[in-house]
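Pasting as-is:
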Amino acid sequence: MTGFLKGVATAMITPFTETGVDLESFRAMIEYQIAGGTDALVVLGTTGEPATMSESEREKTIECAVEAAAGRLKIIVGAGSNDPQKAVKMATRAEALGADGVLAVTPYYNKCTQSGLIAYYRTVAGAVRIPVIAYNVPSRTGVNLLPETAEALAEIENLAGIKEASGNMVQVLDVLRRVRGRLDVFSGEDALNLPILCAGGAGVISVVSNLVPKTVKEMTMSAMERRMMMANKLSDKLFPLAQACFCEVNPIPVKEGMNLLGFRAGTPRPPLTPLEPQHRELLKEALLACGCEVTA
């Protein structure tokens, strides 16, 4: 299916305190995204650190997002697992809590075959009525969803797209060629947002838009409307910030970036660690170059 999402979805961080999720801060971040023109929020994706959250924390975070959004933008919930039955449980719970869609990462660690990937997505999508976006990020999972597999997934009725974070532009072009008009493709790598949009991507699922949602939205719409001088100008402006946001493993830098902008983002949960001091300066410089006001 196509058309579920167009434009920008922000892969939201989850702000933590020493005792749990800082829901008040999370609501403030959601309002910041809405003010910036973001079209959807991805809650409890990789950037949201769900692997180190309890089931209760995850449910409260979903409930908070749905309530705070109040229909002003779509809420897409991360619901993938290396166990298909756990993925189904997460997806059905997200649907019950009011999510508009789910983002299901490919099974990790088990390293299934391409046939296994097709069976997995049929199982997850078949368990819910809301749209499902497949998430391909082989650098984290050890499994690469190949272009011919993407073509097979286009036959699943409520499979709404693929978040492509392989980092391989040749692969992305092959995926687009095979599924064009039948399945949407979203950039899952901020450094490649512009070329994927120009090749026909339906939008971006962005980490950087946590920090500068308005600029990411302007760049995305400029590219989709083929206003290329503006799209290139904005992409050039965003590129150093995208590099800074991945100078250490995501979401370490972006959480510190949100702290620098004055939000209570807290620090990542172990085994992730706070941003190294030298990288903090790099991130601060990139934020200032994007016209942001930083607090320290």
